[in-house]
Specification:
Layout (H helix, E strand, L loop, with lengths): L1 E2 L8 H17 L2 E5 L5 H15 L3 H4 L12 E3 L15 E5 L8 H4 L17 H26 L15 E9 L13 E4 L5 E6 L5 E4 L5 E3 L7 E5 L1 H6 L9 E3 L7 E10 L4 E2 L17 E2 H17 L4
Parallel strand pairs: 1-2
Antiparallel strand pairs: 2-10, 3-4, 4-5, 5-12, 6-11, 7-10, 7-12, 8-9, 8-11, 13-14
The site of fe (ii) ion has 3 residues, from loops.
InterPro entries: DIOX_N, IPNS-like_FE2OG_OXY, IPNS-like_sf, Iron_ascorbate_oxido_reductase, Oxoglu/Fe-dep_dioxygenase_dom
GO molecular function: 2-oxoglutarate oxygenase/decarboxylase (ethylene-forming) activity; metal ion binding
Pathway: Alkene biosynthesis; ethylene biosynthesis via 2-oxoglutarate
């Protein structure tokens, strides 16, 4: 558990102390809980409440905002439309939201990957206002966390300022129906995967089900701790740090017997930003493992791989 409130301190040593904790956790696990993030509890609760309300609607209603109607990957995917483990379909349904940009925004006109407007469901009072406020709050926390990462890597605190410009920042509302305790391989809420982008902040309800792979391959439960986020870094940061920081496998198996809801927020940064080995990440004698690539290209590659795997069993 890392309390990141020190990142907002006026004292450099307070900020640096948080950076040191982030460094240690990212090297060892790539996963930790975050407290002191400043997102009001009421907003976290409201985001989950609205998520339940969205999925409680009949499928015909949800299909009005189907992801297939969006050019920028926003909208609803029904149950079993995705396979994060790249083998069996995930027992979950999802609504993709993101930075809500109008059609005439330069990044949308230029067709930057995944940039564009959200599809907002109708007939859910407070849904749009809540989700917009939640997205803005998580964008703010993400910017602070990028300062934490800069400190963790002994870089200037404003090192990632460009990265934060018009960021790819996807929010997924997720609904996992219950599955049996002895669920076989065919039944997983979300198959084992690493996240594609830079940062993930996971808001989950009280039912649990997230598991993170430990160093010797065992699955460790990451149950909800009220008021906190489960945080992890994704493949972009692993790539950027030449795998000094770990992008760790995780999965979801909902054996609570109840409907489970969660809202991960994925922060991947400005599509034009170039991911290349960061200063200070090479050990003696090591050279960069990955060629430089833009965020956009990196994300497109990750999506393409997932899509190809999914199309092998979905219609
Ligand atoms: O729902 C969760 O707890 C985790 C979801 C997840 O790992 C993902 O969507 O990438
Ligand atoms: Fe994930």
């Amino acid at each position: 558990m890392i309390d990141i409130s020190g990142l907002s301190s006026s004292k450099h040593e307070d900020r640096k102390a948080v950076g040191a904790q982030i460094r240690a956790a990212c090297i060892e696990y790539g996963f930790f809980y975050v407290s002191g993030h400043g997102v009001p509890q009421g907003l976290m609760d409201a985001a989950l409440e609205q998520t339940r309300a969205f999925f409680a609607q009949p499928d015909e209603q949800k299909a009005k905002v189907a992801r297939t109607k969006s050019f920028c990957n926003r909208g609803w995917d029904p149950l079993k439309a995705e396979s994060l483990g790249l083998d069996v379909p995930d027992n979950k349904e999802t609504l993709f939201l993101g930075l809500d940009l109008p059609l005439d925004h330069p990044a949308v006109v230029a067709r930057r990957f995944n940039h564009g407007p959200n599809q907002w469901p109708e007939g859910l009072p407070g849904f749009k206002t809540t989700m917009r406020a939640y997205h803005a709050a998580l964008r703010d926390v993400s910017e602070r966390m990028m300062v934490g990462l800069a400190l963790a890597l002994d870089l200037p605190e404003d090192y990632f300022e460009d990265f934060n410009d018009t960021p790819l920042s996807t929010m997924r509302l997720l609904h996992y129906p219950p599955q049996p305790v002895n669920a076989g391989r065919e039944q997983v809420g979300a198959g084992a995967h690493t996240d594609f982008g830079a940062l993930t902040f996971l808001l989950q309800d009280e039912n649990g089900g997230l598991q993170v792979q430990g160093l010797d391959g065992e699955w460790i439960s990451a149950p909800p701790i009220p008021g906190t986020y489960v945080f992890n870094i994704g493949d972009a940061i692993a790539r950027w740090t030449n795998d000094l920081f770990r992008s760790t496998l995780h999965r979801v198996i909902n054996v609570s017997g109840k409907e489970r809801y969660s809202v991960p927020f994925f922060y991947s940064g400005n599509p034009d930003h170039v991911l290349e080995c960061l200063p200070g990440c090479l050990k003696a004698g090591e050279s960069p493992r990955y060629p430089a690539v833009t965020v956009e290209k990196h994300m497109q590659e990750c999506y393409r791989r997932a899509r190809e795997a999914a199309s092998s069993y979905v219609g």
